[in-house]
Amino acid sequence: MLQWTDILNLARNGNPAPANKVAHTDAEWRQLLSPEQYHVTRQAGTERAFSSAMCSLFEPGLYSCVCCGTLLFDSNEKFESGTGWPSFTQPVDPAAVAYHFDGPAIFQRVETVCNTCDAHLGHVFPDGPPPSGLRYCMNAVALKKAAKP
User: Fold this and answer.
1) Phi, psi of 123 (to 5 degrees)
2) pLDDT of 149 higher than 60
3) pTM (2 d.p.)
4) Could you please report the per-residue DSSP string of the chain?
5) Number of compact structural domains in the chain
6) Is 67 a residue of the active site?
7) Other Cβ atoms within 10 Å of 97 Cβ, number
8) pLDDT, tens digit, 9 for 90 and up, residues 64-75
9) Which range among 16-30, 93-107, 133-147 shows the weakest confidence by mean pLDDT?
10) Which of 27, 55, 89, 97 has the most CB atoms at less than 10 Å from its CB?
11) Range of the domain at 84
C-alpha cells in the first residue's frame, strides 16, 4: 500500500517503469479525444468541480485512462471526498500512475499522470482516509469506467 512518503519519494527520485508506453502526436491526440479530454489530459487542465456524475457513482467497477485504456483505479478504493472530483485511496497497481511535483517542491503538491501515456489525471494529497491517508483527486474526464471483470 502506497503512503505519502512513497509518493514523495517517487516524485523526487523517479517513477517505476510502465509495462508499455503509448505515444501519439499532438494531432493524433486531438483526433482521438474530445476537446475537454484533450485540454485536461494533454494540457494539464482541470475540469470544473462537481461537473461530473462520476463523483457520486460508487457501483463496482474499474476506472481506466481515457487516452490509452490503462487500468488505474478500482471502485473499492473510491470514496466521497466532498471536493467535486472522483477520489480514490490507491491505484490498482503502484506502477499505473506516475508522480511529479507540480509547482515549488516546498508545497509538495504532486501531479498524477498515467504512467503509460503521460495523460494528466489530477493530483494526490495526504488528506485521505486511513489506512493510506491518500486522496487521489482525479479529473473525471480523464477516466473511463469499465465493468468489473
Assistant:
1) -140, 160
2) no
3) 0.94
4) ---HHHHHHHHHH-PPPPS------HHHHHHHS-HHHHHHHHH---PPTT--GGGG--SS-EEEETTT--EEEEGGGEE--SSSS-EES--SSTTTEEEEE-S-GGG--EEEEETTT--EEEEEES-S-TTT--EEEE-GGGEEEE---
5) 1
6) no
7) 30
8) 999 999 999 999
9) 93-107
10) 97
11) 4-15+23-146
CATH of the domain at 103: 2.170.150.20
**Bridge partners, 133 (sequence order):** none
Contact status, residue 92 vs residue 62, Cβ threshold 8 Å: yes
Grid cell 486522496 in the structure block, residue:
135
Query: How wide is the angle at C-alpha 84 spanned by C-alphas 125 and 102, nearest 5°?
Result: 35
Q: Band of the pLDDT at 146, cuts 50, 70, 90?
A: confident
Catalytic residue among 55, 67, 68, 137: 137
